[in-house]
Specification:
The chain is mostly helical. 69% of the residues lie in helices and 0% in strands. The protein has two domains: 40 residues, Homeodomain-like (Arc Repressor Mutant, subunit A), CATH 1.10.10; 136 residues, Tetracycline Repressor, domain 2 (Orthogonal Bundle). It contains nine helices and no strands. Helix 1 crosses helix 4 and helix 6 packs across helix 7.
């Protein structure tokens, strides 16, 4: 993964080939395809490795019921958002476009990305259910819908960060905070 990360960060998605990855790793190009179906899958695996989205990000790390709902969700986001800063905006745009283009020939790839989003939705829902269990939300509060809305707000801010050149990561993070405040300001409990 380290070799592919270096090449992608240095040469971008279009400037990196599976042949270059294989040469730098000292393996045959065909060997790569024993593990990955496409260059985009290699990129995605490299990103997940770098961001550590699948390891270390844990909803249990945010389960401090002394936090407000907003604070707990931000703590969850903080676990992987630092990794987002590692990637150049143009690089992330290449990934987004590449993912959509890849869907034509390899729909499983986009499904894999979407599955990570569903995992995040599920984790945020679990967090909201904990708050519901201590009475922060009413019994009829739909934690699943709320988790989907939270995830949509996060994705919107990340995409606008990648596509609006003058938008800083701090602006992105503040946008997330503002959206969470709109969604949950009424849940602030007495400390």
């Amino acid at each position: 993964m380290q070799v592919s990360k270096e090449l992608f960060l240095t040469h971008g998605y279009d400037g990196t080939t599976t042949k270059k990855i294989a040469q730098k790793a000292g393996i045959g190009e065909g060997t790569i395809f024993n593990y990955f179906g496409s260059k985009l899958e290699i990129l995605y695996a490299s990103m997940m490795d770098e961001i550590s989205m699948n390891e270390g990000v844990n909803i249990e790390n945010t389960a401090d019921m002394n936090l407000t709902v907003e604070e707990a969700i931000l703590k969850y986001i903080d676990q992987f958002s630092e990794g987002m800063r590692l990637f150049d905006k143009s690089f992330m745009r290449e990934i987004i476009v590449g993912s959509l283009n890849q869907y034509k020939t390899n729909p499983e790839f986009l499904e894999m990305i979407v599955q990570n989003d569903y995992q995040s939705i599920g984790e945020i829902e679990q967090l909201l259910l904990k708050y519901k269990g201590i009475g922060v939300f009413t019994e009829d509060y739909d934690t699943k819908e709320a988790a989907e809305i939270v995830t949509s707000a996060i994705v919107f801010e990340y995409i606008s960060y990648f596509y609006i050149e003058e938008k800083s990561f701090e602006d992105c993070y503040e946008g997330i905070k503002k959206k969470l405040h709109v969604l949950f300001h009424w849940t602030v409990k007495e400390k």
